[in-house]
Amino acid sequence: MTKDMDTFWILDFLVLMLLFQKMFAFTYTSKDGVKFSYNFSFKQSCRGEKNRIGILPGIALPECVKECGMHPHCKALNYRKRYNACYLYSSEENEEDRSKESCIEVKESDIEIKERPGDDNTEDQTCDSSEQTYNKYTECKYNEPPLNGKIVGNMNGVGDRIQYKCDFGYEVPKESEYAVCRSDGSWSVVVDKCTKIDETNVAQDKQTSMSSIYHGHDGTKGIDGNTNQDFGQGSCFHTEEETDPWWQVDLGDIYDIVNVTLFNRVVGQCDTGGCNRATDLSLSIGTTLESMYIVGTVPGPINDIHTFKFPEGKEARYVRVTLEGQNKVLHLCEVQVFGFPSKNF
Predict the structure, then answer these.
(1) Residue 299 burial class via C-beta count within 10 angstroms: exposed 0-12, middle 13-18, buried 19 and up
(2) Which pLDDT value is given to residue 67?
(3) Could you tell me where in the chain the CATH 2.10.70 domains are found?
(4) Which of 198, 203, 238 shows the shortest CA–CA distance to 224?
(5) What does residue 146 show for φ and ψ, rounded to 5 degrees?
(6) What share of the chain is helix, strand, coil (3-state, %, to 5)?
(7) Looking at the chain, which residues constitute the CATH 2.60.120.260 domain(s)?
(8) Class level of CATH domain 22-126
(9) pTM of the predicted structure, to 2 decimals
(10) CB 89: neighbour CB atoms within 10 A?
(11) Are 214 and 238 contacting, i.e. CB atoms less than 8 angstroms apart?
(12) For position 54, what pLDDT does the model report?
């Protein structure tokens, strides 16, 4: 065997041994001046959630190794190259809790910090490279609940997650519902207050139906935006005389309803029996026609303007006004339904 062939065989053997052991070693200097060396290996599966203390998305493997090497409680890391995601763990091994996805794995014992800015600081402190100061972070500070809201979750260790929840009628800014405790001791999102959701008349210009129509005074006149209560001005709907006459609006989607206001007929030429025929009235709502139920009643005549209020909201797509009894006529000049789109549908 020639010398060249011997050299080729030896190199080939070393490559095979390296691949067999699946162990690689590198030395790296981070942008903030931390120099370290580390070994890593390929695993057929990634560790799960057990003993996980943090998730760092969108960083390269060397930066992930540095985070583990500088973290006081990190004993091992898994790096998912497919997502550029770094997972830190407080123990070296956990074979019982693994997924089927392959991972790069580094143990804390295979990381050696050679140089770092401020090595004259005490050894038991952890470097926060973003500020070039030395602090030890194992958890985030208590986060005050937002105004008009609350926090769901009481864990504040690195990697833990909380959720901001707002009172009815309020919402958190977009993409701010969840917050993660980061390795630098800060929350990824801080919400100081919930914002008020604007309430609008969601019934205006929507589709209507009614039990009967008297002389062309159809249901659309009840949601045309005209609150003029003079029947003679032509903006009021009117049913025939019948048993349990009703009027209904389809909002087209499901909304959280906060109030419904009825504008009664109070001015204009009236037939026998007087102008105020809105008596013994009931208000029904439902997310479907089959699920309609009564949410308010008014025995006797209603006021010139009557409002049903729902401080905690009522989810509905359909809103119906009915006069209970025989030989009744329902005529109103406007029905306003104030609310906002429901988050549950």
Answers:
(1) exposed
(2) 87
(3) 149-196
(4) 203
(5) -70, 155
(6) 10, 45, 45
(7) 200-341
(8) alpha beta
(9) 0.59
(10) 27
(11) yes
(12) 82
Interatomic CA distance for residues 259 and 255, integer angstroms: 11
Q: How far apart are CA 135 and CA 120, in angstroms?
A: 14
In this prediction, the residues of the chain whose per-residue pLDDT falls under 50 are 1-3, 5-22, 121-135, 272-274
CB-based contact 277:328 (threshold 8 Å): yes
**β-pair type (133-134, 161-166):** unpaired
Tokens of 293: 């139920």
B/e letters for 103-115, b = 16+ CB within 10 Å, e = fewer, are bbbbbbebbeeee
Neighbours of 86 (CB within 10 A): 26
- Return the structure tokens found at 238: 């009117």
What pLDDT, on the 0 to 100 scale, is given for residue 217?
Answer: 94
Contact 302, 264 (CB under 8 A): yes
DSSP helix/strand/coil, 14 = helix
- Homologous superfamily of 200-341 in CATH? Galactose-binding domain-like (2.60.120.260)
CB 298 within 8 A of CB 306: yes
What CA–CA distance (Å, rounded) separates 124 from 122?
Answer: 6
149-196 CATH fold = Complement Module; domain 1 (2.10.70)
Do residues 97 and 90 lie in contact, with contact meaning Cβ atoms separated by under 8 Å? no
Beta bridge mates, 259: 309, 338
DSSP assignment string, 134-169: E---SBPPP-PPPBTEEEE----BTT-EEEEEE-TT
Return the residue matching tokens 């295979």.
110
Q: Give the closest residue to 283 by CA, choosing from 234, 335, 320.
A: 320
Ordered alpha helix ranges (H), the chain: 3-21, 61-70
What stretch(es) of the chain map to CATH 3.50.4.10? 22-126
Q: How far is CA 224 from CA 253, 264, 340, in A?
A: 18, 15, 19
